[in-house]
Queue: 3 jobs
Job 1
Amino acid sequence: MQRLAQKLRRAGTRIGLVPTMGYLHAGHLSLAREARRRVGKSGVVVVSIYVNPTQFAPTEDLDKYPRDLQRDLRMCRAEGVDVVFTPSDAEMYPARAKTQGQRGLAARAASGHLRSTGFSTYVVEENLGRVMEGAARPAHFRGVTTVVAKLFNLVLPDVSVFGQKDFQQAAIIQRMALDLNFPVHIIVAPTHREKDGLAMSSRNKYLDAEQRAQAVILFHALRAAQAAVAKKPVPAARLKKDLKEFMTAAPLARLDYVEFFDPATLQPISMVTRGTNMALAVFLGKTRLIDNVRL
């Protein structure tokens, strides 16, 4: 991959990267189309497919995360993607113990004990990753920034496209690219949604019929918050309380967090107004879904 990227860059060919964990859906394909728009017909669009173990905690769904590479390849071909990069764990985290499976790698990554396997260098963003998803999933963003930094070094993209559904992740990647002088332009593309408003996610596959029907409560909560602040500011504490009550309309849904924050710093704010950003995470059974919106 790196040799190909170097050859393309020497020839003056622009490269667009879409990092994914596979099990692609229409939202991923919209990112590939945005990458194509940015690099042009003469450019090269690369989609990476890699379920990165270092961003999963030992209790999370690494082993069960949906995978179907042949399906993904068919979708990429139909979309006109030029290159699909599918590295292995051994390639992305070299010299790890061969006797350890993915679960062991994720456990050691979460606890900071990958040193014994021969891999011990991480990229850590210090500020934006402390709240929301970072607070709920410690060490998650360390895995994200590390693997994306590696992808940037391997694919050498001019542009890389991320989805707005993972707003905090995109903000952290933008900060990493700026702080570490990666010569790549980060594009954040709009969230792709189902007809009923549910944000598209590979994890939606986990939902049974009843959970799927109630999962739309995430989108409805975002709309309710937008309506609440349309005419005047509302204290964040009061709006959080109102939204927790609102969520009871979906008895299978369990709210993990709801936050109102400054989009530049990601720090919580006390008074919610039009233009404030909102994010929430909700469990439906064992499936955890996230969403966000600018109110």
Job 2
Amino acid sequence: MTIPELISQSNGKARISYELLPPVKGSSIETIFSTLDRLMLFQPPFINITYHREEVSYVKQADGSLIPSVVRKRPGTVGIAAAIQARYKVDVVPHIICGGFTKQETEDALIDLDFLGITNLLVVRGDGDKITGRFTPNPRGHRYASGLIDQIMAMNRGIYHEQYVENPTRTKFSVGVAGYPEKHPESPNAEQDLLFLKEKVDMGAEYIVTQMFYDNELFFNFVKRCRKAGIHIPVIPGIKPITTKEHLNMLPRTFHLSIPEPLVREVNNCKDNKQVKEVGVQWASGQIKELIAAGHPFVHIYTMGKVDHIVKISENVL
């Protein structure tokens, strides 16, 4: 079932989906299962699994020098998606990203997903380099998410990147994309950002999941601007609870978002991060309750692999 179909069939019932990180290389998938065993109590409509590009890691040598090494620290998105779907019988939505992948590697991953019966995707460009912050595409890959969408839609028409495919099968992928209530950090302004989003929708995107935000008015205004621009697909609000005082500086710097002054004051008044986490639970719970009351019953939570505070939020709002 596609995500828009899940939304339509919920008949306004409040539902929370969750985003998970693949465990680091060498970890057991039980780390994912132990998290999901608790979250599945809330009957999520779907589980989202992030994809991660390669990173440069510096390995210390015997003489004390550092040698750069290219590694992929969190592989396994396709396998994890399949394992979750098989174990929990829930819809899964793996990320498909530009960074670090050639068009052929993207096609091969899509073929694997098609064979596994995983047809819901979230298509995003992916993060920039962790050192410079700049995004550099694979020379044989895509620079923008729109290129990924074009490739996926071509496969849905039976057109593969590999030109010599015999008797090509049409895939049935349903694509979601990211939306930015406060604009993408690399967009020159909010109007241009919306034009880029409209382009993706016109290409075939069927729903939008937003970047995190801490002021619901930003989301409400974003939805209004989408509708005015002719974007009428579902827009799912994305929520990430604050858990540490460091988030006050790290989140705006990393994601180019704003944090309301009342939340900043509450966090600064906390004696330790245990209190901060409780403030984050209450703030996120209040956001979600207001979103549901305003007619947005599908809400997406970015878990970052942590679960205790996510369980509390889910209990508060469902």
Job 3
Amino acid sequence: MSAEMPGEFAPLTLRSVPDLRIGMLVPSSNTALEPATALLAAPLADRVGVHFSRFQVTRIALDEAADAQFSLDPILAAGDLLADAKLSAIAWNGTSASWRGFDTDARLCAALEDRAGCPATSAIVSLNAALEAFGVRRIGLVTPYSSDVEAAIVRNYATIGIEIAATCREDLSDNFSFAEISPDRVAEMCREVAGQGVDAVAIVCTNMRGPFVAAEIEAEFGIPVLDSIAVTLWGTLNLFDIDQSALAPYGQIFTKRIQK
């Protein structure tokens, strides 16, 4: 019996062996990004395999205990497990650098590259590349986070000349709860900021269901919606010469290429 992918994409048989293997590091309490990434990547499944490893992250806050979740050792240990799969690239699929400082992802990516022996990127490295690709200077920010985390994100983006001109948040800190925000509510949050004179909407969290509403909001407002799950996949694929146009129904991001 043949195994074919349903829908409008080219048939895929189980005999297909992807040339590229992408590893993604996932917060342990995240339930949104793996299924969403699998859905986004499905049109490329004959060329790209996506594999996941977790380390413990349960709460997003600015205190010392919450910050300690992002120390290098447990992240690198999770990366070592992925490296056994002889990866083509590895990505930190989380947004902690948006409030901890962009330098934290620069150090992490360098360490991951050294340990895994392949290129490394992250959600925030990819988001910042997307902002540059679209020429974005004013963001409408959507997050599930608390006000102090949101304020830290606003400050960090100001350091690179990006104004966060509108915000909408849910004031949550339990990471598991972020995925319980419905797609309809995520869309409402995007609409709230999209109409306030911004160049793009940024959904900064990889445990929200942004990939399922991005194209809808883009069609309404005519501006890109840069969802963290989607941009992580986009940024990782941009390390290679891969045509991502088949993913364009999920958002404008997949029509852009990073100039190397």
